[in-house]
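Q: Sequence in, structure out?
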Amino acid sequence: MKRIFITGFALMSLLRLAAQEPTAADSTAYKPQKLKLDEINLVSSYYRQDGDNAAVTGGIGSQKLTDISNSIDVKFVKYGLSGKKHMLDVEVGVDQYSSASSDMVDLSANTSASYSDIRVYPSLSYTMENEEKGNAIGAGVSSSTEYDYQSFGGNVSYSKKTRDRNGEFTAKFQAYIDQVKLINPTELRPEIGNGGTEGRNTFAGSLSYSQIVNQNFQLLFQADIVTQQGYLSLPFHRVYFNDGSVHQENLPDSRFKIPLAVRASYFLGDNIIIRAYYRYYTDDWKLTSHTADIEVPFKISPFLSLSPFYRYYTQSAIKYFKAYGEHTGSEEFYTSNYDLSKFNSNFFGLGIRLAPPNGVLGIKHLNMLEIRYGHYDRSTNLASDIVSINLKYK
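A: Exactly. Output:
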């Protein structure tokens, strides 16, 4: 399979040319009427994991996976004659991944190479902000395409600032219309065949409120309601019953989720920020979870900062989960996917942010380089590492 890379270093020559374009002599006194390039973000990451509970083979077997992800995010801005600010955001992402467990959909293949695929996910969003009235409206569309999955999404949003501009209320609605290609385990194909698609729809409403409490302290509260309908299983996930028979994962065709979250930022002097986050989640499959996250960016110099971070997560199992060989024929719904089991996890790492006054590598408008590394460890014997690079052109 051909690999696709869109990295910041591959586009360096383009940014050098862009940095040589003339700029307005006094940008504070003039608001452009034409759409202008405001910012470019280039992100590349490498992810790898390994574990022993692959859902493809019924909750046992290798979960080894690698993913190379690359995305480019381009932001444009203009001011209308009435003073309204118009923002257009165009993003394209490409992932190339290989998975040892996906290679086991066909148990007779006798191949040592991991299954590989490419996922492409573009998105487009538009926001119009009325700075005088303190409100904004936005809309966006997105899609995601890979070998066995196709998704189309859309969203609309509205935000309104309080009279003193210290608080902001935001409402957002999102919808995703998906199609799952039915790729069944080989030993079940004589009974149920292969091919065809099934639909899956997701609708999400979100309400949030942010507040500047004082010059050092900021808070944000968020509440979501998410509903899913359609084919919520994955066709190539095997489930082994206690009599040794093999079956295809079978989950209900609806799911209702409620996540609630709070985020806080405290500025401890000029050089240290404490960022904390907590989320509670529950759904009608009887899964509940708690997420606690803290990150403490601190400046070593005006141009260099470090950001250590840590996240703890714990969840209960859904009522339809059992391990390999524990399900019985009396159950209507069943899965051995350990992502839906009871577990807790730890994720920690460090970010390094560089913003030199003359630009990264001497390119004036390439004003930020960030490198982040994180290690993830889950109580179900799953471990992973991720490293990412972010370049910003502004």
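Residues 12-19 form the longest helix (8 residues).
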